Every structure is written in C-alpha cells, then in structure tokens.
Amino acid sequence: SSNTTRGIFIRNTGGSAHGYLSTDGNLRLIAEDSGKSISFYTLNGDSSTAARLTIDSNGDIQSTNATSAKPVFTLENTTADAASSQLVFNKNRTATNDDILGTVRFRGNNNAGSPEVTEYATIYAQSTNVADGAEDGQMIFRTMKDGTLGARLTINSDGAINIANLSASSD
User: Fold this and answer.
1) pLDDT tens across 21-54, in order?
2) Residue 122: what pLDDT?
3) How far is CA 68 from CA 63, 65, 71, 117, 119, in A?
4) What is the CA 51 to chain-centroid distance, rounded?
5) Could you give the CA distance from residue 130 to residue 3 in angstroms, rounded to a whole number?
6) Cα(169)–Cα(167) distance, integer angstroms
7) What is the mean pLDDT of residues 143-152?
8) What string of DSSP letters covers 27-89?
9) CA distance 114 to 59
10) Do 9 and 23 touch, CB atoms closer than 8 A?
11) Distance CA 54, CA 35 (A)
12) What is the model's pLDDT at position 58?
C-alpha cells in the first residue's frame, strides 16, 4: 500500500485483506480492500468468538448480541456540570423543505411462515422550512395499525400537537 504512516500492520496471509493501526496521532483501524468490513469480537467461555460490532464498507454499523435485553447502547457523561450526553443526527447537504433529519426505527419479525422484518414504530424529525432566519421543524411519531405504518402524533414547529385526527393547540 502507498500509506507510509503505519504503526502495527495486520495481514491476512490467506488473502489480500489487511489493515493497520496507525500511529500518526490517531488510533485507526483501516480495512484497505474495498467491500471489506471491520468487526470487533469477544471471546466466549467455550473459546469461540462472536462478532459484537461490525462497520461495513458502506459505513453502516451493526451490533449483535444473543443475550436477552442486549445489545445496549449507552452514552454516559460523568462531568460535574449540567451538560449531558448527546445523540446528534446531522443532515449535511443543501437544505430543502421536508428533509428527514433523523429517524429512530423500531423493528421486529412478524409471524409469517418465513418471518419478515417489520417496522412497528418510527420517530423522525423533519425540516418544514429551511429559509434562513425562518427555520421550522416538526417531530413525527408513527405506529403500526393493521399492517399500516402511519403518523399518529405530530409536534409542529409552533408547538401544536396533532394526535391522529384530533388536534390540540399550544395556545
């Protein structure tokens, strides 16, 4: 490879997949072959290994655990101030009205003969006006009813709440 700032080099002797931990002031694990993923494993009590966190070549992250109520994703802030941990969704492109800015999806299998992954609920944020100085946004909660995922609760930019077909104003 043309990269000369290597630290610890990792090579798969059976193929061309390899990576390295860089020592240029940052700690990096790099899979140099396109289409490869980076996985982090744990050693089980029976000496087998299990992938716990995988970053695929598209940048998608998957955490897998067969233990009940796992995996757990924790953000912990231990500072002695009022600041908190943050989960930030950032849509970084030329803004347009009605962009979906971030989504939390709740999925599980249904009971079809070959179970299908079904999205049972969704929470997302949307920009409704991106004009400088007049920016507006809304948050939408969707749930599944009789096989159809639909908006059941919307909090508009002015604080108005729309619940299914009922409305309540913030005034």
Assistant:
1) 666 666 667 676 677 788 888 887 788 888 888 8
2) 97
3) 14, 8, 8, 19, 20
4) 18
5) 42
6) 7
7) 95
8) --EEE-STT--EEEEEE-TTS-EEEEEEE-TTS-EEE---STT----------SSS-------
9) 29
10) no
11) 13
12) 84
Query: Is residue 121 scored above 70 in pLDDT?
Result: yes
CB distance 62 to 50 below 8 Å: no
Residue pair 90/100 in contact by the 8 Å Cβ criterion:
no
- In eight-state DSSP terms, residue 170 is -
Q: Count of CB atoms within 10 A of residue 123's CB?
A: 15
Give the span between the Cα atoms of 74 and 39, in whole angstroms.
19
Reading the block at residue 57, the tokens are 């070549």
Residue 130: the pLDDT is: 96
pLDDT of residue 1: 44
C-alpha to C-alpha distance for 99 and 97, rounded to whole angstroms? 6
Of 17 and 134, the structure prediction assigns the larger pLDDT to 134
**What single letter denotes the amino acid at residue 28?**
R
Residues in the chain: 171
Residue 88's closest CA among 73, 77, 101?
101
CB 167 within 8 Å of CB 152: no
Cα radius of gyration (the chain): 22
